[in-house]
Amino acid sequence: MAGAEKGAAAQTIIRPQPGPQMAFLASAADIAIYGGSAGGGKTWALLMEPLRHVANPQFGAVFFRRSTVQVRNEGGLWDESEKLYPAIGAAPKEHVLQWNFPSGSSVSFAHLEHDKTVLNWQGSQIPLICFDELTHFSAKQFWYMVSRNRSMSGVKPYIRATCNPDADSWVAEFIAWWIDQDTGLPIPSRAGVLRWFVRIGDAIIWGSSPEELAHYTAPNEDGIDAPIPPKSVTFIPAKLSDNRALMAADPSYLASLMALPTVERERLLGGNWKIRPAAGLLFQRGWCRVVDAVPPGVRWMRGWDLASTPKIEGNDPDATAGTKIGKLPDGSFIVGHHVTDFLSPSGVERLIKNTADADGIETQISLPQDPGQAGKSQVTNLTKMLSGFNVRATPESGDKITRFSPFSAQAEAGNVTILRAPWNNAWFAALEGFPEAKHDDDADSTSRAFNALLNASTFTLSNI
User: Fold this and answer.
1) Which CATH number does the domain 3-249 belong to among 3.40.50.300, 3.10.400.10, 3.90.226.10, 3.40.50.80?
2) Per DSSP, which regions of 7-95 are E strands?
3) Number of helices followed by number of strands (H, E) in the chain
4) How far is 184 from 167, CA to CA, in rounded Å?
5) Inter-residue contact 353 to 365 (CB < 8 Å)
6) pLDDT band at 457 (very low <50, low <70, confident <90, very high)
7) How sure is the predictor about 373, in pLDDT bands with cuts at 50, 70 and 90?
8) Neighbour count for residue 91 (Cβ, 10 Å)
């Protein structure tokens, strides 16, 4: 957030914090990207950007998030704007997510949920376009909206964006010059430095000055070759330590980031643009303690990852896997059993039923429901077969790494114990190989058991 203080006339003075936040707001670049650690004050800086122009009645700005839900989330764009814009005299129109300022200028919030959503902005002229979490948008969406960055207001059109690191995003390639490609960390001496580019087709050609790119031409509307005006870009890295206001208001935020799994911690705290999930980063057997007996008072959940292709010569299918995880009274977790096998559809049913009988009715069961009629039919049959047991079926939500991350974080923090058994070594090896290993059924069943265990208390008669 920005600094706020009381002036002599009891007015609230809002100003950027010294360092990267001020550098971002002072940048002359056509496109400035403020990215790095979570909690670096990026969203607040983005919200401050339009305020320099709101006295201009012809000015308008649009903030984009990938979905409307993200715009409205607590602590998100709209929520934070309500703390800032009323102090400037703006009036909200929440039903259309827009602020109107006394001069007649406006700031709007919108989504680009699908690539085709950009067509809703066909013909628009937007002097200032702001992207919150740029890595969530596709390159197609970004470049289309660059074409809508036009102005008749007297304000030179420009773009501002914030983001957290994502090694697999197109943004990582776009800002590669500002990032050390060996460490994945920003190069301090390049922070805020301007570079220029022209884009021909899908190719981006970079230069250290506009003059370097002056010889690139393209036909104008009259069919005559004319120089392509280069655009300037800069990247300004953000760190949590730069946001002294947040550190003072919420000292525990650093501890929360430190508790993340290794990959997310390196991204969101370290600001690393190169780190990716790799074998051994999301799980290591050394994080867990192996015990010979189950402590009393455990609440159990069995999670399944289903497969129904028998393993024969010439094929290499996923296995059916079931993991049993318990939560102890002290809030820690224990993995009590794991089973995996390559079976036919009827063999899968027998395995699930026999395992449920062995677990007992005290163990809850979580099944994945694949989309489509076949998935619904499978879950219906399994639920009927498990009559008398506490069984729930839910669709998968999010990618596999995201689903595995909560378990990974607890394991790395030393909050997971394992019951000693013959299945231990194979399960350890499978999770240590995730996500690079070809098969992820063991990790998927573990994720399902763990996440269902966390969410079990949310079941009510209305949502069963």
Assistant:
1) 3.40.50.300
2) 12-15, 31-36, 60-65, 91-93
3) 14, 21
4) 9
5) no
6) low
7) low
8) 11
